[in-house]
Amino acid sequence: MKEVSRKIIDVTCALIIDDKRQLLATQRSSIMSLPLKWELPGGKMEPYEKPEQCLIREIKEELNIEIEITKSLAPNIHDYPFISIKLIPFICKCVSGEIELREHADFKWLNTSELLDLDWADADIPILNNYLKYLNAI
Fold first, then answer.
1. pLDDT for 44-55, tens place per residue?
2. Does 1 map to a domain?
3. 3 lies in a domain?
4. How many domains does the chain have?
5. Is residue 60 situated within a structural domain?
6. Does pLDDT of 108 surpass 80?
7. What span, in angstroms and rounded, lies between the C-alpha atoms of 29 and 26?
């Protein structure tokens, strides 16, 4: 029997780094898919958007902050039982605003030693591992 391939949804995510080199983690709300899992904030690309445009828009909508993208990292394709996503990560810094949770339950600033201690959404884990490898290489 031939397996039907599913459409892959392009999703951007931000590794937002503060002045102390901590990374912002956001916790999905209890009513979202993957309830209460931790994730890198971001969202689905619209058909007309470039990944960078999408990420800047999504972070403003979800967290009410303005970001500046400083570097892109390798994307990760992940198959959840209900959806397949291509997660497109960017390292960013906050340039203005105060975090206001509009969709998420919580947020934390984490040191690199704490990054893998949370219950992350599965698609984010390879992104975090790549980020840690990147930090060790610079």
1. 999 999 999 999
2. no
3. no
4. 1
5. yes
6. yes
7. 9
Per the structure block, which two tokens stand in for 64?
Answer: 């009410």
Residue 4: predicted pLDDT: 57
19 assigned to some structural domain = yes
Token pair recorded at residue 131: 């980020």
- What CATH number does residue 129 fall under? 3.90.79.10
Structure tokens at 22: 């901590």
CA distance 78 to 87: 8
Nearest 5°: phi and psi at 67? -120, 160
At residue 4, φ and ψ (nearest 5 deg) are -85, 125
Domain residues for the domain of 21 are 8-137
pLDDT band at 3 (very low <50, low <70, confident <90, very high): low
- Residues 35-86: tens digit of each pLDDT: 999 999 999 999 999 999 999 999 999 999 999 999 999 999 999 988 899 9
Beta strands in 1-138 (DSSP E): 8-16, 23-27, 38-39, 42-44, 66-72, 76-79, 84-96, 106-110
**8-state DSSP, 103:** S
